[in-house]
Amino acid sequence: MLNRYPLWKYLLILLVIIVGVLYALPNLYPKDPAIQISGANASATVSGDEMNRVARALEDAGINVASRSIDNGTGLFRLASDNQQTRARDIAGELLGQQYTVALNLADSTPQWLRAIGAKPMNLGLDLRGGVHFLLEVDMDAAIEQRLELNASAMRDTLRSEGIRYRDSEASDQTLSFSFASEADRDRARSLLASQYQNYSFSNTDEGRPGLTLSLNPQAVSEIQDYAINQNLTTLRNRVNELGVSEPLVQRQGPNRIVVELPGVQDTAEAKRIVGATANLEFRLEATDSTPEDQRQTFSFRNDDSRRAALERDVIITGDRVSNASTSFDESGRPQVNINLDGQGGSQMNRASRANIGRNMAVLYIEHRTRDRTVMKNGEQVTERVPYTERGIISLATIQSALGNQFRITGLDSPAEARELSLLLRSGSLAAPIYFAQERTIGPSLGQQNIERGVISVIVGLLLVVAFMIARYKAFGVIANLSLAVNLVLLIAAMSVLGATLTLPGIAGIVLTLGMAVDANVLIFERIREELRARPIQQAIHAGYERAFTSIVDANITTLLVAVILFSIGTGPVRGFAVTLSLGIITSVFTAVMVSRAITNLSVGGKSIKKLWI
């Protein structure tokens, strides 16, 4: 029989619509303004006492708290108004001090029954929802200092292997200095090092004993600085990818700064900790009684300040040789990090461990941080940032046998600390420390008024299309409008499920989709009008849908190809527009061909009709 679907096809269309409605529903629940409190490091947690102290302080300040909760050691205060967010954060931050991180947040308000099936609202871009903006400053002096220390360690190893006696070495201000027992040793060292390190200029010094000074040339300094900024860019992008942020912005600004923008982030405290973390590892041998005093350094253990150990200055390898890292538990159920080294790192580790079986090797954890200090300048109190470095031993174990590319790190405080350390190592080591020059939570960059206009444009466009279709095609115009409504629901559901980010250009894509969605119905209805001149009504309807299908597919495939090209070569807002347009094309074809025809079949299919209102 003409214009009849089998039952399974009706049920399939109904199922798609029901699923679309369910996964579009979370977008009706706006996110609650909130502040989030978490520990300054992964092992610190927020307890009920801290939550009670903050709650009392907010109440005394007249800030209305809608609710509060603790989840996995992180506290969350939902506020009644977003106008109180910044003030609440400042109060909590001042009360708790530097042991805790207080950040602005937008807490999900989706009902639990929707979250249970994986339904969540769309991600909104910086221009609609806002997010976190970090301006990071790369410490170029530290980048040069780190390169000097690594080169100095390699040079000392080279001199020892050649039997050249040196007294001590020092790295400072883009120079390396060595002193020797005799001029003959200095000359041999100069000849040997000059052939291997061509980025240095060499000069002899004679202050008490024969000396050799190596100075980095300007081109080498520039190359080190460029490498530091580019390596940090790559590392930060990897870390942001680990956070799962949609359409982030990580780009260089000026000679030594990096901008990081994370739209619609939920856990801003974790974002700050992961993005800003400058953790690195150094693997060193424990010093022995025969180690010269100038070649040893003493450090305390991270989890026990009372324990200390003296380590050799020479570094076996650093964290930048780690190719992969994962977490697990050892035989005693304690957290550990499994390390995979690259080829060069594995060779260095094997060579060092093979020659020192029976000695202790330490894993030194290094983190560059800053603290705020208030000083008086020109009669005014000014807060300035003071950088400092924390170093602590996280593992000290005896080398039982030669190590290779794979081994493990134990001695961590908690699984959370192990996960964070593995993430930082897996995403790559920073080539130089970074500091927060600026941090803020961004509101809608185009203003609330422009956002409302974007929403109004969708509503106005929808109403105009609805009015035109009813005026032009009467009863069939109603069918087209019903399928258009289903199309909008399915589009929102698809963007929510795929985690696509909606931006203001994305809203433009939705408006365009609404206009394009009825094109398929126009093709169908006009074809039905032509067929009515030569066929009975039921045959005309059947022929209209069947013969317009090819034109619909051809028209939408070309537009879809353009959208895919835009997505592949575009960035930021252009990609947001392309995503919305691509999904809109797919849902438009489905609703025009399947949903519209299903409604038509249920309305007039198989019935005896003398006149068709089209």
UniProtKB/TrEMBL annotation:
The Swiss-Prot or TrEMBL record describes its family as follows: Belongs to the SecD/SecF family. SecD subfamily.
Organism classification: Bacteria, Pseudomonadati, Pseudomonadota, Gammaproteobacteria, Oceanospirillales
What the entry lists under HAMAP family is as follows: SecD_B (MF_01463_B)
Q: Where is the signal peptide?
A: none
**The Protein export membrane protein SecD/SecF C-terminal domain, residue ranges:** 437-600
What membrane topology does the annotation report for this chain?
Answer: Multi-pass membrane protein
Q: Does the keyword Cytoplasm apply?
A: no
Q: Where is the SecDF P1 head subdomain domain?
A: 301-432
Q: Where in the cell is it found?
A: Cell membrane
Checking PANTHER family in the record gives: PROTEIN TRANSLOCASE SUBUNIT SECD, PROTEIN-EXPORT MEMBRANE PROTEIN SEC
- TM region positions: 7-25, 454-471, 478-500, 506-528, 548-570, 576-600
Q: What is this protein called?
A: Protein translocase subunit SecD
Q: Which residues does the annotated region (Disordered) include?
A: 326-348
Q: Show the SUPFAM superfamilies listed in the entry.
A: Multidrug efflux transporter AcrB transmembrane domain
Where does this protein come from, organism-wise?
Kushneria aurantia
Question: Out of the domains of life, which is the source?
Answer: Bacteria
Q: Which residues form the Protein translocase subunit SecDF P1 domain?
A: 229-286
Major localisation: membrane
Keywords associated with the record: Cell membrane, Membrane, Protein transport, Translocation, Transmembrane, Transmembrane helix, Transport
Q: Which NCBIfam families match?
A: 2A0604s01, secD
Give the SecD export protein N-terminal TM domain ranges: 2-104
Keyword Amino-acid biosynthesis recorded:
no
Q: Give the protein's function.
A: Part of the Sec protein translocase complex. Interacts with the SecYEG preprotein conducting channel. SecDF uses the proton motive force (PMF) to complete protein translocation after the ATP-dependent function of SecA.
List the InterPro entries.
Answer: SecD (IPR005791), SecD-TM (IPR027398), SecD/SecF_arch_bac (IPR022813), SecD/SecF_CS (IPR022646), SecD_1st (IPR048631), SecD_SecF_C (IPR048634), SecD_SecF_C_bact (IPR055344), SecDF_P1_head (IPR054384)
Subunit comment for this entry? Answer: Forms a complex with SecF. Part of the essential Sec protein translocation apparatus which comprises SecA, SecYEG and auxiliary proteins SecDF-YajC and YidC.
